[in-house]
Structure formats: C-alpha cells, structure tokens
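Why do we bother with a discrete structure alphabet at all? Because it lets us treat a fold like text: something you can write down, compare, and reason about line by line. To make this less abstract, here is a complete entry for Malic enzyme. Read it the way you would read a sentence in a foreign language you are learning: slowly, and without expecting to understand everything at once.
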Amino acid sequence: MPPGPSPVFRVALRGGSLLTNPRWNKGTAFTNEERKAFGLTGRLPHRVNTLDDQCDRAYDQLQAHENDLRKNTFLQSMKDQNWVLYYSLISRHLKELMPIIYTPTEADAIANYSHLFRRSEGLYLTFPHEDTMEEDFLEQTRGRDIDLVVCSDAEAILGIGDQGGIGIASAKSTVYTLLAGMDPSNTLSVTLDVGTNNEDLLKDHLYVGWPHERIRGEDYDRFIDKFVQLVRKYFPHSLLHFEDFGVTNAYRLLERYRKHHSVFNDDVQGTGAVTLACIMSAVGVTKSRLVDQRIVVYGAGSAGLGITRQVRDGMVTIDNVSAEEANKRFYLLDKHGLVKQSLGASNIRGDLHEFVRPDDEWSDVEANPNGEITLLQVVKKVQPTVLIGCSTQGGAFTEEIVREMAKHVDRPIILPLSNPSKLHEVKPQDANDWTDGKALLATGSPFPPCKQPGGKEYIVAECNNALIYPGLGFGAVLAQSRTLTDTMIVAGTRRLAALSPALKDPDDALLPDFGDAPEVNLEVAIAVAEQAIEEGSAGVDWKKEEVREKAEAFQWKPIYGTYVYDTDGEQA
C-alpha cells in the first residue's frame, strides 16, 4: 500500500514492459528523470503531463463516444492501460461515469461479452478443467497478497440470466477500489464457468464460455467447494464476495461457508443492507420503530429474501425482539402470489419457510382460481407501511395499489428496487403524484427529482448497493475478520442510515448522494471494523480508537508515485 501522498516505488520493469503494465504505466506523466532511468525517452512524446492534464484529455476522448456502451468499452481499454488514470478519471466524474462502468450499462456489456471480447481480465475457472483448478489458481495469484476475491457463476447476472464472461466480477472489484480504496493489485476477479442454460449462447459460435448445459447437484457443489477451499487455504484473511449466483444457490452457499471464512453475497446481504439503511432513515422521518413496520416484499427471489432477512436482523439487533417475532412483520409475494401455507411445499422454496403466512389470516380474502392472493389484496388487508419491489416486473405497483396504500399511511415508504429502470415496479414521479407528494421514495437506479406541488422537488434516493457493500467488505478486510457477521453488517448499516439527509430535513433524500459514496463507505468500513474488534471476530490487535487512522492509511489512492529503477523491485 502507498504509505502516503507521494510514495516511492522500486520498479524492475523497463521500456515497453513498463508502458504495457497497467499497474505501473504513467504514460506521458513519466518525468524526464524517469524516462532516462527506464529507457522511455524515445518511446514517449516530448511533453511531460500531469495527472490532471491526462484526465482532461481522457475525458474529452470519452465524450467523443456517442453511446454508453462505447463509453464503457473505452473506459475498459483505459483500465487495461493505466490504473491510476482510469480510477482518477472516474473518481472525478463519479456520478456521471458510475452508470457507465457499473449498472445499467455494464448489463449491456456483459450481454454482449463474447462479441466484445478483446483480452482476458481475471481468472477463468471452467468445469472441464476442474482437475487443474489449483494450478490455474496459483498461476494467477502466486506472489500476490490477495485481500479481495470476487467470484460469479453468472447464473443471475443483472437480471438477464446466464451469461459468459467475467464482467460483473471485474466491475464489482472496480467499485471496491473506487469507493473503498481497495488496492486493485490485491483483488482477484473470478468467473466460475459451470455452463449455461441460455440457448442463444449455446448456439452462438462466438460464445467464449463453456458451451454446455449448466452443471447442477453434486458436481456443482464439488466444483464450488474446491474453489472456496483454495481461497481459504492460500488467502485466509481475504474477503470472498459471491456475486449473481442463482436463487437456488445464493443463500445456500452463503450459509454453507460464512462460518468458516469471511464470505459476503452482495445480492443477499448488500441489497438487504442498503435497503435496511433506507428504511431506517424513513422510520426516522416517520418517528416510528423498525419493528412497528408492516412490510410487503413483492418478489421473493434472492434479492427480496435477502432484504427481508437483513431487515429482520435489524429488528432483532436494534429493537431487541426475537427473530420469530420480527418474521411476523413481513408479507412476501412471488410468482404464486402471497407466500402462504396452502400453496403447498412444491410451490414454496425451502428458504422461505420462516416467512410463510398462516392460511387462517386470509380466510376473509377470496383467492383467485389458482389459490393465489394478489398484491392488491395484500395491500388492502395488511395496510403496509413499507412496499418493496424486487420483482423485475415494470409497472407492478399500479395506481390503484399505491393509492390504496396511501389511504392508510401518512408517509408511505415505497421502494421500487428492480434494475434496470425499465423494470422498476413504479416510476417515482407516479408514486409521488398518487400519494400527493407524501411518499418516501428510493429506487434501484438513478431517477430525476420528483416535481412537487408548489414547485418544490423531492430528491429520490438511489438505493444502490455500492453505497454500502464496498465499505462492508473493506471493513472486514481491514479487521482481518475471520467471518463477516450479521452484527458487523448491521453496524455498517446503522452508520449509513445515520448519514441520511432526511434525518435533518424530512423532505430530503433517504440516503446520501451517490457522489459522496467514497466518504460514506469509509464510515461504513470503520463501523464494521470497530464492531469486529468489539465482538472478538477481528484478526488484528487494535483498539477501536485506532480504526479510523488504520483505515485511512490502508486505502489505495489513484496517484502517481516516484519510480526508482531497481532490478529487484516490483514487476506485476
């Protein structure tokens, strides 16, 4: 890690090898002294540029690209050439460029991964090569101090189904660096290629993944376990981040490994944590308690269930109630309607059993011919204070549903969280209009402010995982925690909620502005590490009072250091 604002590095690379290494390349920012020392004088144009100059030039070049996907490709190329310039440029235009390198544009890049492929960008572990997994793993990681491993089996990438490639794992790693200061040289992006069930990909002769039906059952579990054990064996203090695993595996794998390693699933825990922070902020506005809420979750997949469990855990920790008591505050709906007893075991996933509603509650509600209770019926009976959408069904929160909710609640909390924006359950402006400007809103993608009566504007909070998951992971890595516990996550969530603008002005956003995400994630990380120390799960011998200083010193910053040529110095 750079020890300060002007670090000195001893580097063994020279000439073209230095200019093609993205970790060490400075391009035109190499000083005249460095150019002489590293054999670069004849390889670069005369003028020495500052990092500011380079960012100005790169931003101008970026604007010349006419659509977001081309901008994404341009930035990916820059990342392949010069890490400092890439991260510095995005940091300077964070709100503008985050949607380009992350959701929603990254979804298009991933969907077209095989056709856009130019060069590899991580570790590709494929089921047919299971026998050489350890060899392949060590080839990529030997001599490196890995703090963060982001892996995906690609089954549930961004709601678009099976996709080949490593794009989402790489994008998540990038966000850890941008928003939490994780050193990119100490991160590893991994795709666990176990096949695909996407027929279009299987028929595509340009598909770069393994063209085979997705592996399931014992073979799948053995393959995943072999990978996890390699991470545990060689990098015991690293954070293992699971990303976009399918609903049948996401929670199951998290539960299997979380007691043995510091494991995190963003879809289950990250989405849940930022939503919990959002609800805590809204509860602060309404002057109520978390445990007093009546919460309807429309969409009971991995994200919806993750939100439910995280908010439940928040009730248990913050309001000191039992998990069984907190479970009663939730009403989950999936493709079969309300999750209730009479749906039967065949229609209720095993991981939903804690939240199954008893049939006698609904004896006065007439189900449809399939025995299903609809969202409108649930809203009429439950009179929820919180309505959460994770269904990817655009327009599911109709005017009738929203107006029905608003009849019974002074400040309805409405969170249409599905991505991308075309899949949102309700447009924020519509929800605002249908509740006469009383709704407390947050969405999964950025939206413009809502026009209010009298000309005022209501800022719609972006309930973006990136406001919290980099800090949660950074806090665990910083503390060298053996596990990432529920209480550590709740500690980070409470810190995020405490930063809510709505706590100062009830008509302001429920979450901090995304432009403040780096500062916000630092605060989250500090809270997580402090909690790890307090509860004894940390692997460091620090006092809580030391955490902030340690965190700030640990962060990687996109700045150029001074290079000294040394044949025994850094190379990769």
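What the structure line is telling us, in plain words: Residues 269-466 form a domain with the Rossmann fold fold (CATH 3.40.50.720). Residues 83 and 136 are 24 Å apart (CA to CA).
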